Amino acid sequence: MTDTSPSTAFAGALSRAVSEGSLTLQQLSQRLGELGTPLSAATLSYWCSGRSVPARARSRQAVTHLERLLDLVPGHLVSSLPGALNARWNPSVGVADLKAVQLAVAGMGMDLDRHLEARVITDELTVSEDGQRMQLTTHQLHWADAKKVSRFPVLMPLPHPNARLESASAEAGAHLGSHQILPAAGVLAMEVRLDHELRRGDLGQIRYEVSWACDEPITQYTRRLPIVLGRLALAVAFEGDPPRTVVHAHLAQHGTASRTELPAGPQVQTCIAEAAAGIHRLEW
Length: 284
What we know:
There is one protein chain. The chain is α+β, with helices and mostly antiparallel strands. It folds into two domains: 6-87, lambda repressor-like DNA-binding domains (434 Repressor (Amino-terminal Domain)); 98-283, Immunoglobulin-like (Sandwich), CATH 2.60.40. Helices cover 21% and strands 42% of the residues. It has helices spanning 6-20, 25-34, 41-49, 57-69, 84-87, 98-107, and strands spanning 116-127, 133-144, 148-157, 164-172, 174-182, 187-199, 203-213, 220-225, 229-238, 246-251, 257-262, 267-275, 278-283. The longest helix has 15 residues, at 6-20.
């Protein structure tokens, strides 16, 4: 009987990719070290043989680097890891009222199972002169992780507890269906319908815009990442006087927090390769 356990599946996928690739285990080890996730060639050999599997968060981040170094479809190795079903892209990660979100998404005829995995996200914000309006334009590159994907839910954190949705539209690659603000969960739930159906492993990209208004100044924007993202870009443009400081704050899933002050000005941006999972926030 063939062993199809997760550890065997990962070992088989990795060993095949290495044998078909152009880099040796020693070269892969060196490249992983350069990317900030050092692993010995011996450890990689153990992974290929199934004698051990990536278990720590840093090791699993190294797996995403291996996918790129071996020219694999994003998620090819990650999806075969033991416990991968619990580590996959789930838009509800970090949401306060999960039950309310599940009911709202179910009411749109969808669920929170993994449909797509984002690989690159660019969020571009424009804040009005009085600070009480904010427009968000999101560009997303993703790959399908289901047999067929024609629509999926997006859960967007509210920029302010009293924020009002002025408009929402998809500009490329998709159009928007139902949407609902869930105050208890602090999110806007949206149904995104793709212009073209994707099959497992297909890459696609979309762009959508959302405009918010509030009776008080909007002073932050939040992006939640349930897993490591290939690239995250956050940018904000101020139509009025720019704030003295803009900070990129990150709260990791295990509780570690960091704050980085960005160069101030009318336009501020940060771009993060292999962006860590957790909550990323621009504050001004």
